[in-house]
Each structure stands twice: as structure tokens, then as C-alpha cells.
Specification:
Length: 222
């Protein structure tokens, strides 16, 4: 198996090289960028995964994440930051990051989170299910040509259901594959399904509730 090619954007003169050494020793091929400008020079076609520090000397790590997505990088992005507030986490996830780790952290947890992100498998750049179009690279979704204003987790939920269109997906499987452990609260699936249906409007019926089993995205003829 080819090594995972990882972009590490970290300006700390001690932490950056330390992380690079640990990741390299665990089989990753690491490109270390000490600032936003260096990160933007890296060709996204040569990357499978990115770790981005939020606070950089020449900009905002979220801007780097946005730049990666606009350059069609469709791999997972893990955000590192000392900012641990719920609002900060939600903001980062809504802007296209896939996971969020607060400093200080244990190396074992970082490695475990990277393995979890990679287990989600390669992203399909774009696909259609009935009237729904999902652009995984840009993390956009459309219904009948209209862009849906989705949060990061609403997009992930719709995308997961769309990839398995016609199948009934249990709540436990959705929780495992769509949410991070720190985000799981009672009724998290029901709440997000309800919000997603609201945003689908007249097409809300595309998401069916299969009583006692889970949810299913139906394929409707256009």
C-alpha cells in the first residue's frame, strides 16, 4: 500500500518538526509548511490528507482550508488549535474541515483520529441521486439545481445517505460515520435529519424514515 501523503501546516518551531517525525515514523509522507503562504504552494494533487493549525503567522488556518477546498482538494482535513470553544469548533466544521483537535493533545489521539478519517474511504468527487447532486470536492449539494445552505454535518449526512441511496441506514451507523465522538448528543441523528428535510423543502420526502431501522434516501424520477 502506498504511503499516505500528508500536508502538515504548523508554525511552531518545535511542534511542527516533532509532529513530522512522529507521522513519518508511522508511515506518512509528510510535507511540512510553516505558514499559510507555504501551504498554498503545495500541489493538492500530491496530497491525501491535511493537518492545519488554526493560528498562523501570516493568516488564518481556516483560510488555508478554504483554499485547499477551492483547489479541489477532497481529502480529509484535521484542524489543530488551542481554541476549544463550541462556537469555534462549529465554525471550523462548517467551513469544510472534517475533524478538530484541541491543543495540547496526545500523539496517540492524533494518530487515531487520522486513522478514523482515512477509514471513511476515498471521496467521490461528484454524483447524482435523483434530483440531488452532491459535489464532495467542494462540499456543496444541490436539489433540482438549487444550492442547499447546509452545515458541515448536514452535508456529511446527506452525502452518506446519497452514497447508499436506496439502502436503509441505521442510526448507529450514521453516528459512527458522520459525527465525531465530541459532537454526539442525544437525538443527534433525528435533529439533523429534521433540519436537512427542512432545507430540502418540497423534496423532504426523499429522506424516508424506516420505523425501527433508520433512514433511507429514495431515488425519485426527475
Amino acid at each position: 500500500m502506498a504511503p499516505v501523503r500528508l500536508l502538515l501546516v504548523e508554525d511552531d518551531a518545535k511542534l511542527g518538526p516533532l509532529l513530522a517525525r512522529v507521522l513519518t515514523s508511522n508511515g506518512y509522507t509528510v510535507t511540512l509548511a510553516p505558514d499559510a503562504a507555504s501551504a498554498r504552494e503545495v500541489a493538492v494533487a500530491d496530497l491525501d490528507l491535511a493537518i492545519v493549525d488554526w493560528m498562523l503567522p501570516d493568516g488564518d488556518g481556516l483560510e488555508v482550508c478554504t483554499s485547499l477546498r477551492r483547489a479541489d482538494f477532497d481529502g480529509p482535513i484535521l484542524m489543530l488549535t488551542a481554541r476549544g470553544g463550541t462556537t469555534d469548533r462549529v465554525h471550523a466544521l462548517d467551513l469544510g474541515t472534517d475533524d478538530y483537535l484541541t491543543k495540547p493533545f496526545e500523539m496517540d489521539e492524533l494518530l487515531a483520529r487520522l486513522r478514523a478519517l482515512l477509514r471513511r474511504g476515498p471521496r467521490i468527487v461528484s454524483f447524482d441521486v435523483g434530483p440531488v447532486h452532491v459535489d464532495a470536492g467542494r462540499r456543496n449539494a444541490f436539489v433540482r439545481g438549487q444550492l442547499l445552505a447546509l452545515t458541515a454535518r448536514e452535508f456529511d449526512l446527506l452525502s452518506y445517505l446519497a452514497r447508499r441511496a436506496g439502502e436503509t441506514i441505521g442510526k448507529a451507523e450514521l453516528v459512527e460515520n458522520v459525527w465525531e465522538a465530541s459532537e454526539i448528543v442525544p437525538n443527534v441523528v433525528e435533529v439533523h435529519v429534521s433540519r436537512l428535510r427542512d432545507k430540502l423543502g418540497p423534496d423532504a420526502k426523499l429522506i424516508e424514515t424506516v420505523r425501527g431501522q433508520g433512514y433511507r434516501l429514495t431515488v425519485e424520477a426527475t
